[in-house]
Write a structure and sequence with these properties.
single chain; 261 residues; alpha/beta; Cobalt-precorrin-4 Transmethylase, domain 1; 2 domains; five-stranded parallel β-sheet; five-stranded mixed β-sheet; 9 helices; 10 strands; binds S-adenosyl-L-homocysteine
């Protein structure tokens, strides 16, 4: 009789925003024990250095607008690998349960009878503001924070931005918009229906990575600033009064505007 290989294991692991020092110890332990790692394209190269040389690394990029591995294929492949006895790690950018389809993957794996461990990562929205020295909440400025997608899934309407703006304005909530760069004109126009034009905004690209760049502006200049500064995906658009102090600093540092004679 051929011996039956024991079932492997499966973990959905958050890689954090990019800085390897922001990886959790639990994530590191999972990576070091893995025999197969399926990697998102938003996982920074510095993180990949922690995958053991003995482990097989499979790229399964899913960046919006680019060619990508279909979700169903990734899930099927993971199920097969676990049944073959592999210790599978699905390494996802940021936190696996924040706008990363981790919930869908978990449900499909569980439906196949596979036990899944989920390991939190620092979500990029959090790292984006922290990297600018800005708190997500502040007793004077924001009593909560909203992580929200700027990219509607095909066939869906996406967020009702005027309602989101009203909520953030009335309830003093910081808005962290993921996947919003390509829709910045629409997001700006719709948010202006519920938030003041001078609401401070920061756009942070490649948060926590060596190539991090950012711009600080106001809501009515969001789209123009993004283009003028050449900022794009992957970026977080942060909106709210928690940025007031940073915006004031930027204004002081800005070169004086020359008036035409
Ligand atoms: N699960 C991820 C989000 C996946 S959605 C998380 O928790 O961070 C993909 C979006 O995340 C990108 O389009 C971008 O908006 C954001 N993102 C991911 N990594 C980023 C980074 N290092 N800097 C800025 N934004 C990032």
């Amino acid at each position: 009789m051929t011996p039956v290989r024991p079932l492997g294991s499966c973990a959905l692991v958050g890689a954090g925003p990019g800085d390897p020092d922001l990886l959790t110890l639990k994530a590191l332990k999972c990576l070091q024990a893995a025999t197969v790692v399926l990697v998102d394209d938003l996982v920074a190269p510095a993180i990949l250095a922690h995958i053991p040389a003995s482990a097989r690394q499979i790229e399964v990029g899913k960046r919006g607008g680019c060619l990508s591995t279909p979700q169903a294929f990734i899930e099927k492949h993971m199920i097969q690998l676990v049944r073959q006895g592999e210790r599978v790690v699905r390494l996802k950018g940021g936190d696996p349960f924040v706008l990363g389809r981790g919930g869908e993957e978990l449900a499909h794996l569980q439906a196949a009878g596979i036990e899944v461990e989920v390991v939190n990562g620092i979500t990029s929205g959090q790292a984006a503001l922290t990297g600018l020295g800005v708190p997500l909440t502040h007793r004077d400025h924001a009593q909560g924070v909203l992580f929200i997608t700027g990219h509607a899934q095909p066939g869906a309407q996406g967020p009702d931005w005027p309602s989101v703006a009203q909520l953030c304005h009335q309830q003093r909530i910081t808005l962290l918009i993921y996947m919003g760069a390509s829709r910045s004109a629409h997001i700006q126009a719709s948010l202006l229906q519920g938030l003041p034009a001078h609401t401070p905004v920061a756009v942070v690209q490649n948060a926590s990575r060596p190539d991090q760049r950012h711009a600080v502006t106001t809501l009515d200049a969001l789209h123009d600033t993004l283009h003028a500064e050449g900022l794009g995906s992957p970026c977080i658009i942060a909106v709210g009064d928690v940025l007031t102090a940073l915006a004031a600093l930027h204004e002081q540092a800005a070169p004086p505007i020359k008036c035409a004679a």
